[in-house]
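Hello again, I could really use a second opinion on something today. I've been staring at a protein lately and its backbone has me curious. Can you walk me through what the tokens say about the fold? Take your time with it, there's no hurry, and the full record follows here:
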Amino acid sequence: MDKIMKRLFIKTISYCLLALGTVVFTNCEKDSNIKQYVYPAPEVSGYSPAAGYVKSRVAILGHNFGDRTEAVKVSFGGILADKVLSCNNNCVVVEVPEEAMSGDITLQVWTNSVTVGSYEIWPSPIVSEMLTESGSTIIRPGETVTIKGTGFGTAKEDVVVKFGGVNAVVTNWSETEVHVVAPEEFPTGEVVIVVNGFEVVAGTALNPLAKGDVSIAYLKNYRQPFKIDPNMTDAQLGTSPGTYLPADWIVNDAARSMQNGGASEKVAGLNSDNLLLQAGWGANDFTNGKLYQTTTLPKGKYRLTVNLKEYGVKKSTLYITVAEGNDLPDVTDINKENEKVKGFYLFNQVENMSPSSVQFEFELTEESTDVALGFVCSMTANGWFRATELKLELL
């Protein structure tokens, strides 16, 4: 019986090998008859434009382009384009690569290549500086701004300048210098020079007369991360500083209640990236402590908002105020009857350990007014506040 089974097994294996050989032979015969597909050569009828900047777009017209962007390669002066933006059978749109050079445009579709024509790369416009009448980024409508650089086109009509997206009037032009008048009611934002469609950011324009948040135009070091006064001395810093004087803020002697380890002079104003005045926890009590900065504001109605991380003034008096001049009044002089005081907020004598915001509005009637704004307080232990940001809005 075992011999019979063995013979059957051998016969089965033999039949399988014979069948496999037949299949392989048959397939080899079929493969020898396969013909390679030949893609039609692309035909170009035109292209536009024939000159421009890097990163601009070029359209190539013709036939047999297919509809798959991955099959298309376009080179400018031998430099392969990174972006074929679209492709259908009669139009290819491509972005000129940043490293492109003047020379022939070459189009390749699958395995076929053709020369489209020549393309001239224009030198990209470059801005070297933007000059304003004030010497700062604060620009009033009607002021003349000068933009210097290279590659500003071949005619005045080639150039458009925008302030926060609003077109300005170009009064004088050359290939290296453009004079422009800031438009009326432009929003604070970027100044962009557009040369033949190529955009370059020239700088930032802060319109002090634009409604809305004008903090960046009039306040300094007004939000986190706060900057430390670079003029702090070793006597103030000590050997293990944790409290600092904030840059661009004035901290009067009364408010300087804290002393760093190894220091011989007291400081206050900035701790753990918060504006801070404090009494208690090693800091002495004080009366009429002031933390403020000065600025000049144009005529208008304003809102001042202060964001706080926390505060505790159960036995203390804390004001945020705006006053005419270069100093803030004492606690007892902050009231509506004082003509120098333009606005204020008096904190309730409570403790608040949650983030919060306080605000008040004030109005200036003169064309221009020098003001001081900030904190005035008299504190006993344990009193403190931690502020994270100030925001000034023109209403």
